[in-house]
Amino acid sequence: MIEKVSNHTHLRITLNETLSWDNHINKLIERTTGPIGLLKHMNHFIDRKSKLPVYTTFIRPKLGCGSQVFDSQLTCNEKDRLESIQRKAPLACTAAYACTSHDTLLKYVGLEPYITVCTTALWFPLPCVDESL
Q1: What is 42-95 written as a DSSP string?
Q2: Residue 86 and which of 10, 57, 107, 108 are 20 to 30 A apart at CA?
Q3: Which domain holds residue 98?
Q4: Is 125 within a domain?
Q5: How many domains would you assign to the chain?
Q6: The dihedral sign for the CA sequence 76, 79, 84, 90
Q7: Over the Cα atoms of the chain, what is R_g?
Q8: Which residues, in sequence order, are CB contacts of 130 under 8 Å at separation 6+?
Q9: Residue 71 in 3-state DSSP?
Q10: Per-residue pLDDT for the chain (133 aa), expressed as one digit of tens each?
């Protein structure tokens, strides 16, 4: 007998019974918010130039995990939620004021908006790696 579940994670992609991406987006945000907060609080230990490579190497791949699968099916609200995480990263890396324009921040650190990045097929050419390995 097959057990009915409200959501299921397979290959790091979470699907729910209505086939919406809300649970998956929640998990992505959950996995990236803590490390971005850690970057923000490491001002005394890591300089600004070192923070961005830490973000692009260790945190941003988590945010894009499975983006080729779900990107075209996200609602505007879900895209905005992912973009808000992408906004927190340059703020944490540069210690800029919260009122700084998002476009200015991204241009300063050399990042593209999340929506633009997800539509390019080469952003994450490798599958997501299990962190427990």
Answers
A1: TTTTS-HHHHHHHIIIIIHHHHTTTHHHHGGG--HHHHHHHHHHHHHHHHHHH-
A2: 10
A3: 7-119
A4: no
A5: 1
A6: negative
A7: 16
A8: 12
A9: helix
A10: 888 888 888 888 888 888 888 888 888 899 899 999 998 888 778 888 888 888 888 888 887 777 777 777 888 888 888 888 888 888 888 888 888 888 888 888 887 776 655 554 444 444 444 555 4
